[in-house]
Amino acid sequence: MMKWYDQAVFYHIYPLGLCGCAKENTGIAESHFDQLKEWAEHAAKLNCTAIYIGPLFESVGHGYETTDYRRVDCRLGTNDDFRDYVAYCHKLGLRVIVDGVFNHVGREFFAFKDVQQNREQSPYCSWFCNLNFGGNNEYNDGFSYENWGGYNLLVKLNQQNPEVQNYIFDAIRFWVAEFDIDGIRLDAADVLDHGFMHAMRQMTDAMKPDFWLMGEVIHGDYSRWVNDGMLHSVTNYELHKGLYSGHNDHNYFEIAHSVKRLLGICGDYRLYTFMDNHDVERIYSKLNNKEHMGLVTLLVYTLYGIPSMYYGSEFGIEGKKEQGSDWNLRPHLELADYADAYTNNPITALCVKLGELKKQYPELSEGQYQELSLTNRQFAYARALSETAMITLLNCDDVSTTITVQAPVGASSATDMLGQAEHVQYENGQLQVTLPANCGTVIYLGEKVEPITTEKVSSDTEKPIATEKVSAETEEPIAAEKVSTETEEPIAAEKVSAETEEPITAEKVSTETEEPIAAGKVSSEKNAEPSYVLLLNGSPHCNGSTATALEEVAGALERNGVHTEIVQVGHLAVRSCMACGACAETDKCVIDDIVNEIAPKFEKADGLVVGSPVYYASANATLVACLTRLFYSTHFDKRMKVGASVVSARRGGCSASFDELNKFFTISGMPVASSQYWNSIHGNNADEAKQDGEGLQIMRTLGNNMAFLIKSIAMGKEMFGLPELEERIGTNFIR
């Protein structure tokens, strides 16, 4: 049976920032809950059904250095104020979730102050991790301790200590009894003790059966946290990254791959889907093309998951981190400044409509996910029930496009619920939709219905696009204000040949042979994680000849059922290895840059393709520096991951560069995929590279061969395991 949180739309509030509270707690009492009630009303108008608010409890600064779990931060108000606020939200139909900061406490926490005063004799010594009374710290405590994130103002709690568990569980019981909250977002859940979270789940299930536990998890296999015994959901940071990079790179393959991979891992469990939050830069600041904000919003609301809107992002506000401070991400806002947003701000209006769709149509909460069409710049997918479906169609190109898909259900009618399409035609089970540039919409397949209407976005009356008809008036898409962008021709990853062959498109789905991808399944035949290849573009140019070659390889891999992700590294300032040796202990490079971001992708990948332009018969030094540190600082087993290198040149030097890159694979026990010739393409730019017919064919053959090799190795590992390794012998030439 569906729980309230499975159908929820969250509104996320960071109250200390929103209300303009003092950044340091001086003990001066303030009251802001009347202001927060206005924002709760706003959330209800957006058709949100739950509020995540936090941090709330007494602290000295940003809220995550808790000093008292049973007292609301005096900068916000009192316990009575918060109790009244929760009751007010409940009357509005809003559930209330609070931050649970249980990994660490502040230095003013009573138990830590006792340790400071009584040292080894304190009864609370075992409450904290790795206390060392022979050490010291910058506060001159005369002892050291484990902290969180390298910050000694955040003292790590020992969650394995039964006394600590009981103390925290009593605080949670207090929150429920005193305030009637509906759930907790667990801060830093990825470093919380798993036994602690198991016990918390048992306790909260017994206390309040529909109590929701959601964890902040950045990296890793989300299913380790999301399961029947631990948490109901975690933050979907993997998709968050794809939401902006997939649009900036015109690479919907990245988003589609993440969706299917996570469904395969997490099954029916819905992940907490967000475009930004109080810890990351506003997505509106990250998007190269601001028109893509509407597309991102569509994805957040209509993909399989629990959508969340961070306060202010529904208005398209910007926010970037400053060195040493996140306060720009947590601004003070006055709701009165956005009074006309419902009618004049297209993103706000879109949120209202999508929230209403989520409320009215169970397809968006319960429907099975099915990918219908996928290219670099277009994406269509369904959320289907047995007889009805919601189809989301997206176009991030700078020109209008027509997307044709097979309907996943045998419905009688198709309705454009947002009125954004230029043309909709539905007949014989085939849906054809023409979308304007940088625009998306949602089509309902079922009995004929009226589209969602709210306050008008413009003075023009919005009308639905009738099936098989073109609206008499062309409507502007619900998207941020248009900006001028270059109109380059998209390099479709699925093209087989520009002249002679029929393209094999990702969107062709047979309704006779393929079932929708149910939540938790990657395909109807096999509940297994699909193969995945990481491709690194070592060129400074994101759309040059190297990119052309890599996209051709990626297209062939995708057609063979291998998902891909292209990461641009050649434009970055990547330092070379300092030979400091620190990675031997930390398992990551001390230079915290793109290398450490790529490392977990490389670890999960079945294959790695590296591409570089030729400079003086050598690969780009930036790529070489990146690979040197990537291979040296990571210690996971790279054996039987398939490697391949691709080089591009105007004329010569390819073989030397090709050989240089392959050496990273051959020293690591990685089989090297080959093609019908050395993997090179010729051209001084993308247009010239596209004229190298043989070079393009070499790339397609490479992709096909690599996919075959990956699948063959997977079968071999399943049947025989990895080859047995002898104990390594190291012999120096000079002894």
Q: What does this 3D model show about the protein?
A:
- Among the domains are: 104-158, Alpha-Beta Complex (Oligo-1,6-glucosidase, domain 2), CATH 3.90.400.10; 532-720, Flavodoxin domain (Rossmann fold, 3-Layer(aba) Sandwich), CATH 3.40.50.
- The strands form 6 sheets. The protein has an 8-stranded parallel sheet with strand order 11-10-9-5-2-1-13-12.
- It is of the alpha/beta class and 735 residues long.
- The radius of gyration is 27 Å and the shape is globular.
- Strand 26 (642-649), helix 18 and strand 27 form a beta-alpha-beta unit.
- The protein contains 20 helices and 27 strands.
Briefly summarize what is shown:
The chain is α/β, with parallel strands linked by helices and 735 residues long.
CATH structural fold name of the domain at 532-720: Rossmann fold
Largest sheet: 8 strands, parallel
Structural class: alpha/beta
What spatial form do the alpha-carbon principal axes imply? globular
Strand order of the largest sheet: 11-10-9-5-2-1-13-12
Rg is 27 Å
Please mark out the parts with pLDDT under 50 across 5 or more consecutive residues, or reply none.
Answer: 455-527
Provide the helix percentage: 25-40%
How far from one another are the termini?
71 Å
Number of strands: 27
Strand-residue fraction? 15-25%
Supply the CATH superfamily name of the domain at 532-720: Flavodoxin domain
CATH class categorisation of the domain at 532-720: Alpha Beta
Which architecture name of the domain at 532-720 does CATH use?
3-Layer(aba) Sandwich
Overall pLDDT score: 89
In DSSP terms (H or I, runs of 4 or more residues), the helix count works out at 20
